[in-house]
Each structure stands twice: as C-alpha cells, then as structure tokens.
Amino acid sequence: MSEWASRRFWTSAAVEPAPGGWQVTLDGRPLHTPGKLPLVLPTRALAQAIAEEWDAQTDAIDPNAMPLTRAANSAIEKVAARFDAVAAMLDEYGATDLLSYRAERPPVLVDRQAAGWDPLLDWAAETLGARLAVTQGVIPIPQDAAALKALGRQVRALDNWGLTALHDLVTLPGSLVLGLATVRGRIDADTAFALSRIDEDFQAEEWGRDAEAKAAADARRAAMRDAERFWRLSRPD
After folding, report:
1. Which residues on adjacent β-strands are paired with residue 136?
2. Can you say whether the dihedral through the CA atoms of 193, 199, 200, 202 is positive or negative?
3. Burial of 156 from C-beta contacts in 10 A (0-12 / 13-18 / 19+)
C-alpha cells in the first residue's frame, strides 16, 4: 500500500502494538513506508502523533501536513540503511560550525554573536568535551581533532530516530553544536533558530526585511520545530 495516495481512502487511524514497537493502522490495515517497509515506530507517543496526522487529513492528502510521517519514513528507509554516511555528513558541520565564524565588524554584531554563541561553545566544551576554535571572517580554520571526535561520538550515540531528528536540527541552522544542544535539552528549537539567525536579523534591522526571505526563514523554523518534536516523541518513556 502506498501511503501517498492522492485521496483519503480510510475512515479512521488507530495505534496498535507491533513486533518491535507500535504501528499505525488505517481501518485496521497497517501503514507502510513508500518503499513498502513496515512503519513500526519506537514509542506509542510517536505512533499516536502520526495517527493524528493521518486523521487530520481531509479529502485530498497533503504530505506537507505530515512532517512526523515523513521523518519516520526517512528514519526507516534512508537513515537505517545509511547511518554511517549520514553521521559522517553531520560530523562535517563541526569542522566548519556556524558558531566558530564571527563578524569582524560592526561592534554591535560582534557583541551579539559573542553573547549568543559563546555560552553554547562553552557548553560543548564542558559537557561534550569539544572545545571549538573561533575566528573572525570566513576563511576556514582547523579544529582540534579530539574536539571533532568528541562531537562525532555524540552523533553516533544516537539511534536511527535520533539521527533523523538531528539531521534537520544541524543542517537547517548550519551548526552541529546547535543541533546537539537541542537534542540534549540545553536549548529548544526556537532558540537554536534564533541563534542561527543573528547575522540575518542584524542585516534586516539595518536594511529592512524581505517578504520572500522571511517566508523561507519561517519555513526553516517550522521544520526545526518539527524535528525537535520528532526527537521528543521518539524517546522511550
């Protein structure tokens, strides 16, 4: 059964136990991923939230209104099959982490970056054992190999569900530190988004806000909120 049918074909969605976790059923028929793999979820909470996404659909099915379903599909079909490759890709963000690259001027922007980003770099050093170097400008600087390995261990300690959530929490803001701080509960997704936008928000204050850029930013913030929710719901009780 392809879950992306164009029209609603079921009456109600329900949650049932399944081998290895929980499943969502539509009129008693279990959901599968687009690749026909069983959609077995790690927690009842996540399964219930996905069932609610399906129940909220009206006549025409809108996949964009089901971010948890999409993330679960990715965890099962993509991340599980390519865990090491996904983890390695996220590792690369630590080597060029957004928080390491600071403006040279004006002083007000320099101060905002320091006030917002330094506490997170201190947290990474103290809690994760990863002290990242900081520079002004955009020329790449080398990072301590031990610090990058420490960040990598945090990435690889996650399961398929956690790595799926972390993917968006890292790639959307452009920072491995912000992503790990979110899944570790140091900050929430809204805070991570705001911290990633210090430069852009400063420029908007100086030159005005662009409606198209704002819409794109709002979409990124919503996606980060969805990823944080997926992380939280996928954690065992």
Report:
1. 102
2. positive
3. middle
Strands (E), the chain: 13-18, 21-26, 29-30, 40-41, 101-102, 135-136
E strands present in 61-197: 101-102, 135-136
Instruction: Look up residue 31 and give its amino acid.
Output: L
Q: List the structure tokens of 30.
A: 């279990």
- State the first-to-last Cα distance of the chain, in angstroms, to the nearest integer: 31
- Does the pTM surpass 0.90? The reply is yes
Cα dist from 204 to 105, 146, 180, whole Å? 16, 37, 28
Q: What is the pLDDT of residues 110-156, one digit of tens each?
A: 999 999 999 999 999 999 999 999 999 889 999 999 999 999 999 99
**pLDDT attached to residue 58:** 84
